[in-house]
Specification:
- The complex is a heterodimer of chains A (about 230) and B (about 290).
- Chain A contains 10 helices and 6 strands.
- Chain A starts with a strand and ends with a helix.
- Chain B has about 290 residues and is an alpha/beta fold.
- Chain B has a single domain, classed as TIM Barrel, CATH 3.20.20.220.
- In chain B, helix 7 links the parallel strand 6 and strand 7.
- Classes of the chains: A alpha/beta (about 230), B alpha/beta (about 290).
- The interface between A and B is medium-sized, with 28 and 34 residues.
């Protein structure tokens, strides 16, 4: 279970500056349970964006956006619609946003922050990894997480350590995340995004589980499951 | 004395560097710095380079300052969070240090404590921004300082990086954050450095070309294989291999590079890597 919270509409609308039409994507898994990515929330997001003059060409809620195969099949009927969209706004966890960015190779905007639950649940058996940082950076990094893909978690560009595109820390298994980000943006004709991105400073406080979430249903459900399993 | 004052006066600025010791015996470091003193404008003190634990660059900078040698205090983001970084900047100013080189830093896995916590709370860009903020009289949290520093802030750039565009974007970010001069990764090919400078010059910030004293063909091949953004051309490796007197050849090559970049940029930064005593020869032969 990954718990998400919707980013403020002003922040999302800010990501869309210069764009006219978007496609909205929700997730019926954890995001629906979090109240961020289910059908009602996507309809609400649609209304909020339309109220700001942004055209929503269509929307879709897919069962699990962390599953790239499900994204592919789920969006197959929307291929033509997607061509009319400048970008895709994805309302789900960091893994789902990254998986969508990988599958579509279109500009993808995060509509959510993934909240820290104190560690391990952001793991995923794939290249997309979410640190549950509570301040999603994916907007400025082509949908590739700089916190998990970069060995140093650098959010303002690469260090000087990559050699032949490989990370200085684990060259055998890691490419330089920022070179991968660069390549994707170059392919999409969006290199200016790197120049436009504001100075990023990590909010380490948001990387700890918020005390408020400990009283919520999602947290409790997860705790209950653990208790059931041991009783 | 700030490096920016020298650039502003139109000087071709020369810096070099020394490494603090692993231990408290600072004699050799001081000796190396004294040897460099007559022929350079300032000396960088490396911050536990390659993530190997050593005496700190802040203390070492102050030791040089006390001997009338202008230090460039190197700071990396590997070992300190934003509280410690800002605090050390205030300490540095209180100790009379005026030039700071802000770097992200190598990862701890490269050094002798691979099991240590790699901090990277800030990075080179946000460290520059926070130092500039301190210069303005406020800390990162917008609290007002009683007494402010006035640092000359520098950063590094890799002219041989690929893709170069990505490197230039980072360079622009560093300038926007507060960098007022750049020292570069080692340059071995003046022609490709010239192409980099064509892109860097319009940014309007002084650049000092990094020059490493090449000690042997093996060292060149090692750097080609292992050091990011460094490429020693085969012709230079062959020249080194064919030399009877390697130290003399090393000096000749470094001096030639320094001469070749003289008209392209605003200064040189010599990295002697243990051959400090040959730096005066290099600069002499280069006519600097």
């Amino acid at each position: 279970m990954l718990v998400t919270e919707r980013k403020p509409i002003d922040e999302i609308a800010g990501f869309l500056a210069g764009e006219r039409s978007v496609f909205l994507l929700g997730c019926d898994g954890c995001a629906a349970a979090s109240g961020t990515g289910g059908e009602p929330e996507i309809r609400e997001l649609k209304e909020e964006l339309e109220a700001r003059g942004i055209e929503v060409v269509d929307w879709k809620v897919i069962d699990f956006l962390c599953q790239k195969a499900l994204i592919r099949t789920g969006l197959r009927p929307y291929r033509e619609t997607l061509e009319r969209a400048d970008s895709v706004v994805v309302s789900t966890c960091g893994i789902g946003i990254q998986a969508t960015a990988t599958v579509l190779d279109l500009p993808v905007h995060p509509a959510c922050n993934t909240i820290s639950l104190g560690g391990v649940r952001g793991e995923w058996q794939g290249e997309e990894r979410c640190l549950e940082c509570g301040q999603c950076f994916l907007e400025f990094t082509a949908g590739i997480c700089p916190l998990t893909a970069c060995a140093k978690g650098l959010v303002n560009g690469p260090c000087g350590g990559a050699k032949d595109g490989r990370c200085e820390v684990e060259p055998e298994v890691r490419r330089c995340a920022w070179e991968v980000i660069y390549e994707r943006l170059e392919r999409q004709g969006r290199l200016d995004l790197l120049r436009r991105a504001p100075l990023q400073i990590k909010d380490q406080a948001r990387m700890r589980p918020p005390t408020a979430i400990r009283g919520t249903r999602t947290w409790a459900v997860d705790m209950r499951t653990t208790e059931d399993a041991t009783s | 004395m700030k490096l920016t004052d020298l650039f502003r006066a139109g000087r071709f600025v020369i810096t070099s560097e020394v490494a603090p010791p692993k231990g408290t015996e600072v004699g050799e470091m001081i000796e190396n710095a004294e040897r460099l003193k007559p022929c350079v404008d300032a000396i960088n003190l490396t911050d536990q380079q390659s993530s190997v634990m050593r005496l700190g660059s802040l203390a070492a900078s102050q030791m040089l300052k006390a001997r009338g040698i202008e230090p460039v205090f190197q700071m990396t983001c590997r070992d300190r969070n934003r509280i410690a970084l800002q605090s050390d900047l205030l300490s540095a100013w209180a100790l009379g240090i005026e030039n700071v080189l802000c770097l992200t830093g190598d990862h701890v896995t490269l050094g002798d404590f691979p099991d240590a916590k790699a901090v990277f709370d800030l990075d080179s860009v946000s460290l520059l921004a926070s130092a500039k903020r301190l210069n303005g009289g406020f800390d990162m949290g917008d609290s007002e300082l009683s007494g402010r520093p006035d640092f000359c802030l520098g950063a590094v750039v890799t002219p041989g990086a690929d893709p170069l565009e990505l490197q230039l974007i980072k360079m622009e970010k560093k300038i926007a954050a507060g960098a007022t001069f750049f020292q570069t990764q080692a340059v071995f090919d003046a022609e490709s450095f010239g192409r980099f400078m064509e892109r860097a010059r319009p940014l309007g910030v002084p650049v000092m070309a990094g020059i490493i004293l090449l000690k042997s063909p093996g060292m060149a091949r090692f750097m080609n294989k292992n050091v990011a953004g460094v490429h020693v051309p085969d012709a230079l490796i062959d020249e080194m291999a064919g030399a009877e007197d390697r130290p003399a050849k090393s000096v000749e090559i470094a001096a030639r590079l320094a001469r070749d970049v003289r008209e392209l940029c605003q200064g040189v930064h010599i990295m002697p890597l243990g051959w400090e005593k040959r730096v005066p020869e290099v600069l002499g032969a280069a006519g600097l």
